Amino acid sequence: MALDFLLDRFDALPATRALVEQLPATGGRLAVGGLPGSSAAVLVATLARRLPQRVFVVLTPTPGDAERWLADAQALSGPIARLYPQREGLGAEEPHFEIAGERIETVEALLRGAVRVLVTTARASAERTGVPAALNTMRLVLEPRAEGALSAVVERLGAMGYARVPTVTEVAQFSVRGGIIDVYGFGMAGPARVEWWGDEIVSLRGFDLDSQRSQEAIERITVLPVATEAAAVEAAAPLARASLLELLPSDAVLVIEQESAVDREVVRAWDEAAHHREVARRLGEDVPERTVLWLDPQDWRVRQAAFPRVSVSETEATARFPIVAPEAVDRDLKRLRQVVASQPPTVILCDNEGQLERLEELLDAERVQLAVGALDGGFVLPSLRVLTDHEIFRRARRIRRPASTSRCTVSTSSSPTGRRRTATRRRRGCTASGAPPGSGSATRPARRSRRWPPSCSTCTRGGSSSPASHSRPTRPGSASSSPPSCTRTRPTSGARRRR
Question: Secondary structure of the chain: what % helix, strand, coil (to 5)?
């Protein structure tokens, strides 16, 4: 990784070695302080590298905190860091495809041991989910020369919650043309085209969402379910639900940021669930009991207290790191030159190559080290000062999901104008060939922002665009927890080409 030198510096600190020796046992708790900026994320990445047999779970109060931690964790640790997002709806089924897919894929990766740093929220840790049971009964594996009737696969995809459409253009869809099935599912790096001859699969290839042309061969695909409630329907029995805390290894280390705020969020989610359940009941809906979908706060406290816990706290720290916040620069280049000329040596983390080249022109390259690798905040170690370019220039940090080496790119064809097009509907998932992480497959493009669209020229409030007012794409027939305020829909691929 590009930022391994930061992990090396942290690993060399006596405080880090002492923390490894003092990590609390099962049921124990340790408060750690002296971790400004992104130093807490660097510490977690260092511990995950030093203790490869342990899983580190970061509990944050809000989704915004979780996204910030995830961006830092993936920049430091790569694909072994995952996010388990909270449900946006209060029902049993998550209505938004993107969140539902990420929850399913993260649980699947956690259960097969591919996750070492797991970032989640207080509310997500208190939710009961049917994903593990659905993965056990509804997973679909397809590979060449495998035998099985095409009609049975079509029926299975429908039971898993996939929508049958004439042409696959989005995730969670499939289409049937003669002896060919096109499918784009959770757990897949890109869409796949499966061709039968009789009851045998004779071809398995990727295809382009825009041109619909077949591409390179794929060794194997694993299709994960869209609707977890379908598992209960198929089994004709109540769906076994489990919270995230029940799925973790018993020696997983919980790293809790703002411990009191995390506890308050669990209580607030429990109270809101009671309110929304009462509203749904008055509307005549059949809703399950609150305890079916949520851990009550007391039960949550008992379960999380059973794990080793490291609380990031400045007020009650019993172990403290010799790290301080960096000096404020506030766009003052004269002040920046004075800072980098002083001890300790300085490294500036840049969001991209363009920012790096800009700083190379402004600063003496002999006195400062520049590196591409965005972290949320800087910090000062005894032997190294770490600054970030967005803090230097007082810019908001752009959180981008980095490409993962464990996921391959199903390349897209060139457009008629000769310009290369990039599929933007790509889901997070496993390698299309089924190869293990790090097997040399090409990486897929960085994931786009969770919120869509970033702006809307046709929907404004008070004369300004309100990105947060747009609802995310939902399953057909499902209700979102909040009604959309704009009916503008995402343009189809054909409309984009015509524009």
Answer: 35, 20, 45
486 neighbors 469 (Cβ within 8 angstroms): yes
Cβ neighbours for 154, distance < 8 A, ≥ 6 positions apart: 164, 174, 176, 181
Q: What is the dihedral of CA 74, 76, 81, 82, to 10 degrees?
A: -20
- Domain holding 109, by residue range, is 4-128+241-320
CA 76 to chain centre: 15
Q: pTM above 0.90?
A: no
Here the CATH number for the domain that contains residue 33 is: 3.40.50.11180
Provide the sign of the torsion angle of the four alpha carbons 85, 91, 96, 98, taken in this order.
positive
- Do 229 and 288 contact (CB within 8 A), yes or no? no
| One domain, residues 117 and 265 | yes
73's CB contacts (< 8 A; 6+ apart) are 41, 44, 45, 58, 81, 117, 119
Domain annotation covers residue 332: no
Note down pLDDT in tens along the chain; length 499 residues.
Answer: 678 999 999 999 999 999 999 899 989 999 999 999 999 999 999 999 999 999 999 999 999 999 999 999 999 999 999 999 998 877 677 778 788 888 989 999 999 899 999 999 999 999 998 888 888 878 889 999 888 889 999 998 988 888 999 999 988 899 999 999 999 988 888 899 999 998 889 999 999 998 899 999 999 998 888 877 655 555 555 678 889 999 999 999 999 999 999 999 999 999 988 888 888 888 887 777 888 888 999 999 999 999 999 999 888 888 999 999 998 888 888 888 888 888 899 998 888 888 888 888 888 666 788 888 889 999 999 999 999 988 888 877 766 554 433 333 333 333 333 333 333 333 333 333 333 333 333 333 333 333 333 333 333 333 333 333 334 444 444 444 443 334 333 444 443 334 4
Query: What's the number of domains the chain is made of?
Result: 2
DSSP letter string, 19-65: HHHH---TT-EEEEE---TTHHHHHHHHHHHH-TT--EEEEESSHHH
Q: Is 369:346 a contact under the CB 8 Å cutoff?
A: yes
Contact between 295 and 305 under an 8 Å Cβ cutoff? The reply is: no
Q: CA-to-CA distance for 124 and 59, rounded, in angstroms? A: 9
Please tell me whether residue 16 adopts helix, strand or coil conformation: helix
Helix (H, G, I), strand (E, B) or coil at 327: coil
CA atoms within 13 A on the CB side of 185: 31
